[in-house]
Design brief:
This protein folds into two domains: about 160 residues, 2-Layer Sandwich (Nucleotidyltransferase, domain 5); about 160 residues, ATPase, nucleotide binding domain (Nucleotidyltransferase, domain 5), CATH 3.30.420.40. Helices cover about 40% and strands about 25% of the residues. It is built from twelve helices and 19 strands. Helix 6 packs across helix 7. The longest helix is centred in the last third of the chain and has 25 residues. The protein is flat and about 60 Å long. It starts with 6 loop residues before the first helix and ends in a 5-residue tail after the last helix.
Amino acid sequence: MFKFVNPFKRNFLGIDLGTAHTLVYRRGDGIVMRVPSVIAYNAETGDIIAIGESAKKMYGKTPEGIYAKKPIKDGVIENLELVQEFLSHIIKSQSRFISPVLIVGIPAGANDVERKAVIDAGEGAGAREVYLVEEPIASALGMGLPIHEPRGHLIVDIGGGTTEIAIISLSKIAHQNSIKVAGDEIDDAIKEYIRRKFTVNIGDLTAEEIKIKLGNAFPLEEEEYMEITGLDLATHKPKPIRLSSSDIREAIDPPINQIISAINRLLEESQPDLVRDVVDNGIYLAGGGALIKGMDKRIENELKIKVNIAKNPLETVVAGIGKVVEDFNTYREVLSRGKKLLGRRR
C-alpha cells in the first residue's frame, strides 16, 4: 500500500560549508554530496561556468576573463554572491520542489557579521530557514562523544582554512581557539619551501597533491619519494625535481608548530578540572589535517596527551550536523539563528 510521506518532514539539509570542500547531508538519506568549494565564472557576463569538481580542475588554468575561485576563505564567506550561487546549486540538486531548512556548520570563532553572512547566503539561495551549529560541537557529535555530560572533551578539527580547537562540556563550548592556519597554509608552506630550496614554482593543485602523498608531521619508518615538475625560476622552463618525505616534513613544520602552540595555549587558559578531563580522555583529532601521517604522534610527543583520530576525519562535522538534521528537536539547544544575534526579528 502506498504510504504518504510529508515532504516538509524530509526537507532538511545539513551543510558543512568548508574552505576546501562542502559536504551535504539530507534527512533520511545521509551524506549525499561532497564537492570542492570552488566556483568558476565569466567575469564579463557574470555567468557561472562550473561548480565543484569541474571548477577545481580549472584552478590555475583559466584564460583571461574566466576565474575559478574559492568563495569561502579561512572558514568564512569572502564573496557573498558566489556563495549564494554555490548554495543555490546545492539546493536545486538536492531539494528541487520545496525550500529546505538548512543547518550549516560555522567556525566557533565566527563573529556576528560572519554568522549573518551565512544566514543571508542560505536565504538568498532559496532556503526556508537557516540555523547555525558551531563546527567543534558538530565534530564532537559526529564522533559520538557524550557532549551533554559535565565532562570536558577537546576537539581539534584541522580543516582547509581554519583549525578549530575547543573544549566542550554540557553541550556548550567552554573554551575555544579558532586559528587561520590549516590545510591551505600547509599547501602554501610546501610551495614556499620548493621555491626556496629548488628554485621552482608549483601551483596550488600540485602542492595539495604533494601534501596528500608525502605530508608527514613525525619521522616515518621508511623514507618516501615523489617526482614532480615545476617551473624553473631562472630559465622559466619546466624542471623535474624529486621530493622526499623529509623535505615535506621540514616544509610543513612551521604551520604544524602553530597548530600545536594554539592547542597548548587553549589548555593553559582553561579551567583545571576541564584540563584534567582532557588528559584522561585524550584529544580528539578530525578534519583533513588528521590524515597527515604522524600528526597524532607529533601532538602526543609535544603535549604528552594521547590523541584519538576520528574514524572518518573528513566527515565528522557533516556527520554531526546530520544528527541534528535527523533529530532537530533533540539537538535544538546546540543551534543558533544568525539574525537573532544582531537583534533582528523574522
